[in-house]
Design goal:
Blueprint lengths: L9 H22 L5 H15 L1 H8 L5 H10 L4 H22 L3 H18 L15
Helix pairs in contact: 1-2, 2-3, 5-6
């Protein structure tokens, strides 16, 4: 694993700023659903890994977002609920786009791309046991 730059260096400060901006956008969108939350948190996690490993660990240990981020980081897996939420949000967003913009070659190509993304998400492995605090029997 590559070592992060010196914490006081300009490069580290830029990575921290980029990570903080991404996490802030992600957290804002957790409450105001304009953009996807998880993507911004994953970008923040990546950027923090480059410039602020301590903040990366704090994000991975977060009680609400940490388990899902850790699942993705370690195994590229998602819970079934997360898959349904992602795919449902993608479908809803596409339908709104077609409703507002009309059906055209552009929205058709967008739909093909989003269908590919949905298929990719659907084929991600699921964890053997749910790490999100679900009661275990």
């Amino acid at each position: 694993m590559e070592h992060p730059p010196d914490p006081g260096s300009r490069t580290a400060r830029l990575w921290r700023a980029f990570g903080t901006l991404s996490v802030a956008i992600g957290l804002f969108n957790a409450f105001v659903p304009l953009l996807p939350t998880t993507v911004f948190l994953l970008v923040g996690l990546w950027a923090y890994g480059k410039g602020a490993p301590d903040l990366r660990e704090r994000l991975l240990e977060h009680p609400r977002f940490g388990p899902g981020l850790r699942l993705w980081q370690e195994r590229r897996s998602m819970t079934r609920l997360a898959k349904w939420q992602c795919i449902g949000t993608i479908a809803f967003g596409y339908l709104v786009t077609v409703w507002l913009a009309g059906f055209s070659a552009t929205t058709a190509l967008l739909g093909i791309g989003l269908a590919g993304l949905a298929l990719y998400l659907a084929l991600r492995p699921e964890p053997a046991a749910c790490p999100l605090g679900a009661p275990q029997r």
